[in-house]
Amino acid sequence: MSAAQRYPLTIALPKGRLHDQIRELFARCGLAFKFESRKLVAEDREGSVRLMLVKNSDVPVYVNHGIAGLGVCGDDVLYESGFDYFRLLTFPFGSTRMCLAGRRDHDPQQDHGRLKVATKFTRFAHDFFHQRGIPVEVIKLGGSVELAPLLGLAPYIVDLVETGSTLTANDLVVNEELTQIQVHLISNPAYYKFHYAQVNALVRRLQNHDSQGDADESTAG
Amino acid sequence: MVLNRRGYLQIPQGTEGFYLEEAYRHKKLTAEVEQLLYLWGYLPVQTPVFDYYDAYAALLSEDEARKIYRLIDRDGDLLMLRSDVTLFLAKQMGMILRRDDLPMRVCYADTILRHQNREDISKNEFFQTGVELIGLDTLDADLEVILLLRRTLQQIGAPLYYIHIGSRALFNAGFDQADAAVAARLRRAIVLRDMQQLSAECTLLGISAARSRALQQLFSYIGDATGLSALANSLRSELQAAELRQIERLQQLYHTLNEADDSGSYRIDLSEIGSQSYHTGVVFQAYVDGLDASVAAGGRYDRLYGRFGLETPAVGFSIMLRKLQDDAAVDARFTPQISEAATGRTFVQRFRDAEVRRRAGGSATL
C-alpha cells in the first residue's frame, strides 16, 4: 500500500433530500455506511471512505479547506461558493432546474426592461442576467422565497424548481428555465492531485455499480 | 473624535501580521531554506515593494489584474504593489544584468500583496520564497530547479509530498491556432480537468472528434513515464510532431529526475500547464498530504525577460513556506527554545550566568 493510500478518502455529504440516494448508491458499491444517532461522521466497514454529514451549502466550504477531500454537491451550491473544484462524476439523481418565476398575473410591461428578483442564489442571478445584458436588482433571501412576489418584495424569484407544485400552490408560474442543475462528486484540486489513483478507483467503483448505468464521468480521471 | 475601534482593529484583505512563536518559526524556516539555496549557488535579490503598473499590465491575466492592489503616486502615475515576485524580478534583472553575467542564479524571500477572498484567506499566500535560474534553456536547468524544490521540501521536513510536472510547451503545441481568449478558456478547462468544456472548445476550434478525444486523454494524464509512453503510442495517429517532441522531452526529464533522486516524489501530470500567462515550457507544482492547495509552483518562462529588454530564458519556482510551517513535523523542528531565567543575587551575577547558558547553546533572560 502506497503512502497516499494509508487513509480513507474523506467525503462531505449534504443533509437532506440526496442523503438516502447517496447511501443506497454507496451500499451497492460495497461502501455501506450508517450515521449513528446524532453522529455526523461515519466510515464504511472496510475503511475506504470517511463521510461527514454537513449542511448542503457548507459542502464546498469543507472541500475548499481540505477538511473533506471530496464532496457531493449540486451546481447551484457550487456556483454560489465561487471556488474551483474538480467535478469527477455526475450522479443520475438529484437533477433539478434553476428557474425564473413570478406571479401568474404579473404584467412584464411593468418591469420597464429591468428585473427585480428575490433569491437565495444571488451570485448566480446577478451573473446570469448581467451576462445577458439585463439590469437586475437582486434581493437576498434565506428561504421561503415563494413569498416574495406574494408579499410584494419583488415581482420575480430565481429558485430551484423540481415538480413546480410549490409554485402552483403560491399562484406562481415559471417564466423561464435558466439552467439545469445536476449533482456531482467534487474534489478539492490539491486533494485529487495527491490521492488521484485512490480517487479514480472510487469514481470507477461508483460508476460501475450505478443501477441506472448512466452516471457520467464528467471529467477524465 | 470617536474612533471606530472595530474598524481599526481589522486588517485589510491581502496582508497579514504574525507574531512571537509563529514569527520565530517563519524566520527560522526561511533562514534554513535560504542557507540551502546559497549552497546551491543562488544569490539573494530584493525586489521593490511597488512599481509602475503599465510595465506589467500586458502580462497580467484578467484574474491576476483583479487581485492586485493599485495606487497613484504624487505625480499621478499608476503603481501596483508586488503581487508576484517573478514579475518584479524580471524587470529588475532585465535592467541590471549583462549578457556575460549569464547564467545567473538568484533567490528571494519576500512578502507579496494581493487580494484574497475572505473565505480564502487561510491559503496563506502572503510570502514567497523562491529561485530563478536565468540564462539557460536546457533540460539540465529544468532538472536543477525541480531537484532544488525537492531538496527544499526535504530540508524543511515537509511530510509526504509529490511534485507534479507538466508542460506549457505541450499545451502551446496542441492549441497553436487558439487566440488569447480561447487559449485562456482551454487552459482553465484543462487545469480544472473539465473535459466536457475542453471538448466543447475543441469543437469550436474545428478540431476533429478523434483528435479532441486524444487531447482530452492526453491532458488528463497523471502517472509515470512508462504510462505516458503507452498513452502517446496509442494516440500517435492523432498527435502532431511538435506534441510528440514535448512528450519525449518530459519523459527524458522524468527519467533523469528519477535517476538523480529515487525518492518517488515525481509524477508526470499533463493537466499542469502553468498558472501564469508568461509560462512557456516545463511547469510543476508540489502537493503536500493534508494541505488544501499546492505549496510550491514553478516553471520555465523564456520570453518574460525579453519584455524587459533582456532576451534570455529563465526557469524558477516559488514556495509558500507559511503553508508548511504549521505542519506538526515542520513545527517541531522550528519551535523556539524555552528561555530560562538567569540566576544570581545581583544583576552582574545574573548577566554572567546568562552568558554561560548562552555559550552552551541555551536561551536565557536576565
Descriptive key words:
heterodimer; A: 221 residues; alpha/beta; D-Maltodextrin-Binding Protein, domain 2; six-stranded mixed β-sheet; five-stranded mixed β-sheet; 11 strands; B: 366 residues; alpha+beta; BirA Bifunctional Protein, domain 2; nine-stranded mixed β-sheet; three-stranded antiparallel β-sheet; 14 helices; 17% strand
End-to-end separation of chain B: 42 Å
Count of individual helical segments of chain B? 14
The name of the CATH architecture of the largest domain in chain B is 2-Layer Sandwich
SSE string of chain A, helices as H and strands as E:
EHEEHEHEEEHEHEHEEHH
The fraction of residues in strands of chain B falls at: 15-25%
Uncertain runs of chain A are 211-215, 217-221
Q: CATH fold name of the largest domain in chain A, please?
A: D-Maltodextrin-Binding Protein, domain 2
Total count of helical runs of at least 4 residues of chain A: 8
User: CATH H level of the largest domain in chain B: which superfamily?
Assistant: Bira Bifunctional Protein, Domain 2
Instruction: Please trace the helix and strand order of chain B, writing H or E for each element.
Output: HHEEHEEHEEHEHHHHEHHEEEEHHEHE
Reading off the top of the CATH hierarchy, the class of the largest domain in chain A is best stated as Alpha Beta
